[in-house]
UniProtKB/TrEMBL annotation:
Source taxon at top rank: Bacteria
Membrane-spanning residues: none
Organism: Streptomyces johnsoniae
Alphabetized InterPro entries for the sequence: Glyas_Bleomycin-R_OHBP_Dase, Glyas_Fos-R_dOase_dom
Official protein name in the record: VOC family protein
Glyoxalase/fosfomycin resistance/dioxygenase domain ranges (all copies): 8-124
Amino acid sequence: MGSKQLKVGLRVRDLERSRALYLKCGFKEIPNGEQLDLRYLTFGHTWLILSDLSAHPYHAAEREQATKQGPLGRGFVLTIPSKDIDQSYRLWQDEGLPVTAEPMNVGWASVFFGLDPDGYDVMFEHFHE
């Protein structure tokens, strides 16, 4: 399972908070009782793998040090399709998360940008029909 899907991994400080937030954004969870420091989520055919910043191993000591020193996610943007941009915007506000660009029409879609609990840039987009 999962051998042909695009996967994005995010190291997060609070695994359960991030899991709950992304489930509210429309992701589905793949049950995983074997790896307690990982959460596997999907959106269509794309996987989002959340890993505990402190508990999940790193492939190199210098990458661990750089990641933990932060900031997390500089230059990375996770784009999430939205069926209702206003609803996605309200969710972000209700969660008390920063909005870095208010909802706007960019021609092909309505979008807004925010930061998740770990400071990763997230863009929601709703394509015009």
